[in-house]
Amino acid sequence: MRQFSFILGMLLLTCSGFSQRELTAKRVTSELTIDGILDESAWGTADVATDFMNWQPLAGATPSNKTEVKIMYDDKAIYVGAYMQASSRAEIMTELSERDNIGNTDWFGFVLDAYGNGNDGLEFIIASTGVQFDAKVSSNGEDENWNEVWYSAVQITEQGWYAEIKIPYFAIRFPKTDQQNWRFNFMRSMAGTGEKCSFQFIDPLINGFVNQSAKLKGVSNIKSPIRLALSPYITGYIQNNKVGGDNPTTSTGYSYNGGLDLKYGINEAFTLDMTLIPDFGQVQSDDRVLNLSPFEVRYDENRAFFTEGLELFSRANLFYTRRVGGAPIGHHRAYNHAQHNEE
């Protein structure tokens, strides 16, 4: 079904008059400093992606400001340098926010489909404030709980702002082949005017946007490094209870927890995720719901360990991760009716 949707999307894209665009990535041999200043000589030799088109608010319109983007790579990472023109400094919105929450600010985004299938990919966004946002993108939408280590910097001027991005190969997956067949797109949001534009036009009438991406040429002879990440943690809790009326009594309790998360890339297609003594104390709590229906309330999964690769288990709602670690409703009745050889 995904493959059919991708083919249908490409046919609609072609019939609408917007053919698939291309850009060639140049291999860089010198060191690039990620500082938001594109002053290295290598940037001057790279091909330029320009002539963006709006998909909001008026699809197909020319943006009010020009955007120019360049892309290069070496044996360790892929690099993106972008210039977002503006008529004045006051036009650039810069509302500071926490990571993975862009807020009301201008931003630049890079979408990469390293397998070229048009079904899923990775999204890297940098705001004009320097705040990073990353997510896994699929037909199920954006998984904002996905986080990787990548590097970026911005510089704001009176005529616009610059963004420089470095994405190490350990942050992405790609096939073991000499010549890569990647698909990509560059996106920009101008919060002041409400415009959102992209290098490859994104038709809002077509479902999905990874399938509406351009072709990246020139990336060759790169190897994926060992993907191994260890994330230990230590948490402490203090609980204070006060009970009683006129003469209340107070009690205080302390507890400490520790554990470890491990992520290991077996190959380009499989990743092993393990967790030892997971602690979900910092997870967003669920809203209380008064359920008067005969059906269970299905809550979103907020535990990071269970959100990784969740799209693999979303077929026909066969697997509900929130049942992992919790007793099912009516389990006592099931235990009471179990035979001597049943569990």
Could you explain how this protein is built, in words?
The two termini are 39 Å apart. The radius of gyration is 24 Å and the shape is globular. Mean pLDDT is 85; it is low at 1-16. It has 3 helices and 17 strands. A hairpin with a 2-residue loop joins strand 8 and strand 9. Strands 1, 3, 6, 7, 8, 9, 12, 13 and 14 form a 9-stranded mixed sheet that branches. A 5-stranded mixed sheet has the order 2-4-5-11-10, with no helix packed on it. Helix content is 7%, strand content 35%. The longest helix is centred in the N-terminal third of the chain and has 14 residues, at 2-15. It has helices at 2-15, 304-307, 331-336, and strands spanning 22-24, 26-27, 53-56, 67-73, 77-85, 107-113, 121-127, 132-138, 141-143, 151-157, 160-168, 182-190, 195-198, 214-217, 228-243, 249-265, 271-276. It is mainly beta and 343 residues long.
Report a brief summary of the structure.
The chain has 3 helices and 17 strands.
Descriptive labels:
343 residues; 7% helix; five-stranded mixed β-sheet; nine-stranded mixed β-sheet; globular; single chain
